[in-house]
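step=encode ok
step=design start
structure_in=
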């Protein structure tokens, strides 16, 4: 179900990731979400779905709405916090009741964005203002705005490694572990830290293969004729 241009414009101004454009995977939305010429005259209400139930309960989201209403005073904003965001939204997207602004569920294929969401602008225009907008672009139209961007990698204390007597960068797992042990015994510092309660930090060791040496093909080389799992390889 398409939104009016006035309401779509109000949605664009507050969009965390995307605005709904049609219902239940119907015909692709073609109406661009354009901001109204006079924000003060835009009227209506929008429902924002969010996984940040803590911010809804603390009143932080109300503060965001208050800032939004300084520009769009006649638009009523309602935040709906969902504990099982991915599960609930995936089901609701089979109906017309999945809010007006929402974070794009991971279960929605990128090519299906036009079936559920209104385009926020062209790829060229959006790239001038928003980073990573190409990640949600389909046929040169952008359907979502990134909430944040991350840079993966490792941070190490050069001075601490030097104090432990390690001046050459480790090139093997054994050298790395030996260096960590030297830090522990010679400096008393904690040699390695990660938020171990979560599982995702463990994948950084494979995700960042080749980062230190700037080798884009490092992962591909692991599938070469020499097995990386054999001793001495």
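sequence_out=
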């Amino acid at each position: 179900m398409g939104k009016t241009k006035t309401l779509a414009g109000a949605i664009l101004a507050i969009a965390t990731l995307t605005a709904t454009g049609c219902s239940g995977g119907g015909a692709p939305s073609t109406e661009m979400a354009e901001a109204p010429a006079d924000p003060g005259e835009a009227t209506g209400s929008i429902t924002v779905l969010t996984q940040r139930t803590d911010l809804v309960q603390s009143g932080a989201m109300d503060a965001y709405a208050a800032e939004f209403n300084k520009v769009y005073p006649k638009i009523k904003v309602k935040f709906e916090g969902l504990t099982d965001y991915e599960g609930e939204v995936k089901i609701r997207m089979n109906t017309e009741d999945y809010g007006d602004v929402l974070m794009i569920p991971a279960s929605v294929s990128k090519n299906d964005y036009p079936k559920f969401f209104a385009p926020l602008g062209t790829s060229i225009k959006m790239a001038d203002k928003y980073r990573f907008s190409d990640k949600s672009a389909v046929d040169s139209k952008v359907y979502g705005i990134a909430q944040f961007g991350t840079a993966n990698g490792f941070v190490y204390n050069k001075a601490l490694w030097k104090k432990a007597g390690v001046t050459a960068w480790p090139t093997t797992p054994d050298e790395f572990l030996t260096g960590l042990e030297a830090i522990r015994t010679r400096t008393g510092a904690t040699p390695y830290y990660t938020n171990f309660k979560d599982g995702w930090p463990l994948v950084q060791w494979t995700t960042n293969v080749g980062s230190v040496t700037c080798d884009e093909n490092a992962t591909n080389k692991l599938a070469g004729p020499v097995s990386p799992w054999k001793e001495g390889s």
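step=design ok
step=annotate ok -> Residues 151-207 form one domain.
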